[in-house]
């Protein structure tokens, strides 16, 4: 029951996100359509009026041309009045000189209304109003202009409003169809967006339950793909960390248990008087040796824990690498003599890096001691710029061990605690550098330490 409730809750969250995205797209669409519709509705009337004025002007000029060609020679207005009335147009014949309407095809009430508002004498007014009616007008002078005769054509604004409303209705239909298509497209896109997130959430649940082997890749694009890649990498890194932790505790328990069992065995033998005097002395020496070994392991474990958790442990300063390598050579001299190994060095005297000098010296000593212990006859230290290379002519590192060589308690045949290289890596990485292991041309292992320039 609890699983079903949890699944229903997850679906609810997903649907909520999808609904929010759809609502946002729809709201944005409505705002855009509303603004667009208002702008178009406002502009269309002006366009219709301008278009109608152009048509009226063309009609008026055509009428004036006919009048001047056929009726002007007869010299009487009555001669072409019948012609104008037959055109089924709303028009006036107006005398500018006498400020008088000579003829009209419109009812008398409009003549009085226009006269009261002084529209005939006002040449600038293009939209005439009488009562509740408005008209678009166009004025054309008859030839010759000295006569002052003017032809005024009118079109009711209601005719244009009918065209405007019809156009707007069609526009609304187009908007509705477009809105439906956009909402459908929005649903498909949001569904495509949310589905990978839903699958990604399931993978995160597997990571939460530490089911790393069941984590699957999720198909996605864009930023979600980057998030998916990060989640997948995180899962692999967590899996590696968990395995390394298990290995660490297994190795740590083994490393600590062995000297403790040795100490316990000798201590019980001495207590029970199992050993003679000579064996007692040997046992005591062995107990001291194992105690020192335990002390070394514990100190290195404490140091490694501090390096991993306390950034304040680092005090970076500018270091002359040449001086640092000289300190390494001085401290490794006894072991070099004991192992009869030749320690070569080639140092760029101008090399400078920024790190904690004391801890970096510890890291370099760990790597160099490791190389000396495994070398047959030769160890080379090379410094070029911010890169330090330490390599030997020993047997090298086995392929299966290379990926784990910097993990805790991982050591080769002649290794001591298995913590030296782990400490070296922690110090180098906290100093902003990187340490890598490769096969050396000398035949053994090659450790490359690179710091930022």
Would you kindly provide a written description of the structure presented here, covering whatever features stand out?
With 453 residues, this protein is an alpha+beta fold. The protein folds into 3 domains: 2-163, 2-Layer Sandwich (Beta-Lactamase), CATH 3.30.450; 222-309, Orthogonal Bundle (Helix Hairpins), CATH 1.10.287.130; 313-450, 2-Layer Sandwich (Heat Shock Protein 90), CATH 3.30.565.10. It is built from 9 helices and 12 strands. It has helices at 2-70, 77-85, 108-116, 157-208, 222-271, 277-309, 321-339, 357-374, 420-430; strands spanning 90-95, 100-104, 127-130, 133-141, 149-156, 317-320, 342-347, 352-355, 378-384, 387-392, 434-439, 445-450. It has a 5-stranded antiparallel β-sheet with strand order 2-1-5-4-3. Strands 7-9-10-12-11 form a 5-stranded mixed β-sheet. Strands 6-8 form a two-stranded antiparallel ribbon. Strand 1 and strand 2 form a beta hairpin. Helix 8 packs antiparallel against helix 9. The longest helix has 69 residues, at 2-70. One of its GO terms (molecular function) is phosphorelay sensor kinase activity. Keywords: ATP-binding, Cell membrane, Kinase, Membrane, Nucleotide-binding, Phosphoprotein, Transferase, Transmembrane, Transmembrane helix, Two-component regulatory system.
